[in-house]
Design brief:
Main location: cytoplasm
Number of helices: 3
Protein name: Mth938 domain-containing protein
Helix content: 10-25%
Shape: globular
InterPro entries: AAMDC, MTH938-like_sf, NDUFAF3/AAMDC
Distance between the termini: 31 Å
Radius of gyration: 13 Å
Pfam family, one: DUF498
Family: Belongs to the AAMDC family.
Largest sheet: 5 strands, mixed
């Protein structure tokens, strides 16, 4: 299975190629995607992305995870969360969301087993 391309990104809206759903925040992995609902794990801009937000994507067998912190990088990513990903043997890149989507799409286009979690607003 290949990682789906993110077809479009604008403030508050993301579209994944091959999926009819529009997302505000989303998770993507080889073969799928879904909305990233922060309420599931109690995530907020601070302290930010928690390991629980990433477990689902990591279980899909990705070799690399891209985290989009938002258009203005308001979403924090604690070093403990980055360490959690690395301890799973997965490389991680934390970027502003537009740069994160570009990096994710480049890697997906190269056939990498890449996953991502992206925040599309602040």
């Amino acid at each position: 299975m290949t990682s789906p391309e993110i077809a479009s990104l604008s403030w508050g809206h993301m579209k994944v190629k091959g999926c009819s759903t529009n997302y505000k925040d989303c998770k993507v992995w080889p073969g799928g995607s879904r909305a990233w609902d922060w309420r599931e794990t109690g995530t907020d801009h601070y302290p930010g992305v928690q390991p629980a937000d990433l477990e689902e994507v990591l279980k899909k067998g990705v070799d690399l995870l891209v985290i989009g912190r938002g258009m203005s990088e308001a979403l924090q990513v604690p070093s403990t969360t980055v360490d959690f990903v690395k301890q799973k043997g997965v490389d991680v890149r934390v970027l502003q969301t537009e740069r994160a989507v570009a990096e994710y799409n480049k890697l997906a286009g190269q056939g990498a087993k890449v996953g991502g979690v992206f925040h599309s607003t602040c």
